[in-house]
Amino acid sequence: MRFKSFLTVSFIAGLMACNNVSLEEIEKEYLSEVSIPVGGNTYVTSGYEGAKISRRSGAVEDWTNEEAVLSTYFKLPQAEKALLQLVLDSRESSSELQVTVGETVQTIALEAGAEDTVSVGLFELPAGYAQVDVQGLSKAGATFPSLKSLIVRTKNDLEITYVKDNESNRFYWGRRGPSVHLSYTLPKDKDFKWFYNEVTVPEGEDPNGSYYMANGFGEGYFGMQANSDDERRVLFSVWSPFHTNNPDEIPEDQQIKLLKKGEGVNTGEFGNEGSGGQSFFRYKWITGNTYKFLNSVEPDGNGNTIYTAYFFAPEVGEWKLIASFLRPKTDTWYKRPHSFLENFRDSNGYIGRKGLYANQWAMDTEGNWIELTEAKFTGDDIARRGYRQDFAGGEENGVFFMRNGGFFNEMVDLNSMHTREATGNQPEIDFSSLD
Fold first, then answer.
1. Is residue 273 part of a domain?
2. Which of 127, 162, 197 is the last residue of a domain?
3. pTM across the whole model
4. Do residue 154 and residue 205 come from a single domain?
5. Do both 144 and 226 map to the same domain?
6. How far apart are CA 208 and CA 229, in angstroms?
7. 209 and 354 in one domain?
8. What SS3 class is residue 323?
9. Which of helix, strand or coil describes residue 39?
């Protein structure tokens, strides 16, 4: 059975052009319908302890607090008037909810009853990303009804952008947001041992869960993370040649071997996205400051390759060894220099981040530095599918940049090529002084 919603605040700015017309009659005009699942598109953006988005059911669970705000995001190709509906789970008691889009607020009173779709009202939605906030105002029972999806109904058929399905755990990846990469063009007629990069995180672009990966290579990565309010890390990892997500499955002759590490550096194994050796150094890097990353890839002549990483913080003023690993059954120089920007905390996927990547250089096996001024911008599966379109990357003000999350509209095309002006600012490094 369908419950009629009782609107307890007036429509704002004349959004309902048809006075004295019931929502049931409006539904007959707004026939194009898109159902946006909570699991991949909704976040608790305020009152975080008052509700949670279940990875198992893909719905809101344990919604107990009036302070919790459930924000659902989607993108429209044009501004459009839309009828919004909520799909709610079984309700054992009555409650009152508030739905907000921009400056427009609607309140609906819900009676106790079975699962149902409830019409909220007409809203003017902007072109680009829209944000629909749902908040509980009052309830007779212990919890508010579980929100399962948001339905957007329009008169015109629209291609609405959102995370559409949970195949291959896409709700999780979609909630994390699109990961983006810059792959630097390396001359093909030389072998390279060293890669150098500089990273600056602008003020306010460092939400927890961000990874500003600076120096990627064919077999691993090296960069810095914002882990929590109290902790930040410099992370260096090398994958094992044995492909598995469980480190315990790696045969001994294919395990990553630690050769050395810097003071205060933690080392161990990692899994879940391939497995291998990992090292990290807890260091509270600062937004606005520029950090330097230097690492080498070099065959040992015995069918293995050695990977070594160094980190330079301007607050310290000297290069610090992070770690050196041996990767067995590998014979390679530095391949595929790249950087990426990702969010590894899915609950923060609605918050944006940005990194600046400057002054890239590679040193060949004869000791010659070559400046790298061209990069290709790419994205992960969520970006390529178009499930999320809040990503950008390329060149600005003489440096490369990447940006993702936050549901902004200035998207940059994937697979686009970008160049920066050469600086001629060759790294000045005393290799003999490195640990």
1. yes
2. 162
3. 0.92
4. no
5. no
6. 7
7. yes
8. strand
9. helix
Per the structure, the complete domain to which residue 229 belongs is given by 178-433
Could you tell me the two tokens for 223?
């960069």
CA distances from 315 to 155, 199, 291, 297, 319 (A): 58, 14, 9, 27, 11
Residue 173 lies in a domain: no
CA distance 356 to 224: 13
The H or E element spanning position 291 is strand 290-299
Three-state secondary-structure class, residue 417: strand
Residue 352: CATH number of its domain: 2.60.120
Return the ∠ at Cα 291 (arms to 286 and 295), rounded to 5°. 140
| Helix and strand numbers, DSSP H then E, in the chain | 4, 30
| Contact (Cβ atoms closer than 8 angstroms) between residue 377 and residue 182 | yes
Amino acid at 322: I
Nearest residue to 301 (alpha-carbon basis) of 266, 337, 345, 333: 333
The per-residue pLDDT for range 380-392, each reduced to its tens digit, is 999 999 999 999 9
Half-sphere exposure of 231 (CA within 13 A, CB side): 8
Asked whether the beta carbons of 134 and 147 are under 8 A apart, the reply is: yes
61, 42 contact by CB (below 8 A)? no
Q: SS3 of 299, please?
A: strand
Q: Which of 162, 194, 229 is the last residue of a domain?
A: 162
Cα–Cα distance measured from residue 18 to residue 25, given in angstroms and rounded to the nearest whole number: 10
Kindly tell me the sign of the dihedral angle through the C-alpha atoms of 21, 24, 26, 28: negative
200, 148: one domain: no
Structure tokens at 387: 């499930």
What pLDDT is recorded for position 251?
A: 84
The SS3 assignment for 49 reads: helix
Nearest to residue 394, comparing CAs of 349, 357, 362, 424? 357
CA distance linking residue 38 with residue 59, whole number of Å: 6
Taking the CB of residue 185, how many other CB atoms lie within 10 A of it?
A: 14
Closest CA to 48 of 82, 71, 76: 71
Domain containing 133 — which CATH number? 2.60.120.260
258 residue type, one letter: L
Element (H, E) at 151: strand 147-154
**Residue from 312, 75, 391, 355 nearest 207 by CA:** 355
- Residue 167 included in any domain: no
Q: Are both 183 and 95 inside the same structural domain?
A: no
Domain total of the chain: 2
Instruction: Report pLDDT digits (tens) over 326-380.
Output: 999 999 999 999 999 999 999 999 999 999 999 999 999 999 999 999 999 999 9
Is the residue at 171 inside a domain?
Answer: no
